[in-house]
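Technical note accompanying the year-one report. For the benefit of new consortium partners, we illustrate the data format agreed upon in the data management plan: each record pairs a sequence with a C-alpha cell string. No post-processing was applied to the example shown here.
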Amino acid sequence: QVQLVESGGGLVQAGGSLRLSCAASERTFGMGWFRQAPGKEREFVASIPWGGETTHYADSVKGRFTISRDNAKNTLYLQMNSLKPADTAVYYCAGRRHISASIYSWEYQWWGQGTQVTVSS
C-alpha cells in the first residue's frame, strides 16, 4: 500500500504563494492534486503523468498553479501563486498505478490525508 503525505499548507494572505509537497512511500505513476472546500465536493486541481511531459489544470487555477514531480525523490509538488480566498480548501495528493494522469478522482488508488490551505482576504 502506497502512503502519501502532504505538507506545506498554511495560512496566507490573498496574492501570496505556497508550495505543497507530497512524499510517497514508494514509486507511484500518474499523480494529481485535488481539493475540497467546506460544504463542497472534492474537485480536480492538477495532474501529471509519470514522465511529467503533459500536465492538466482546472480552469480556476490555470496560470497560477504549477504541478511538478521529482521521481528520484518520489515527491510531487504544487506551486501556488496569486492565491485567492476561493482557493481555501483541504488539498489532497493522489496517486495511481497507470503511468498516465487523470482528472477523475475515482481513477486514483492512493490518497494522502490532506493539508489545509487558508487564504485570507
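Partners are asked to follow this layout when depositing records. The two ends are 40 Å apart (CA to CA).
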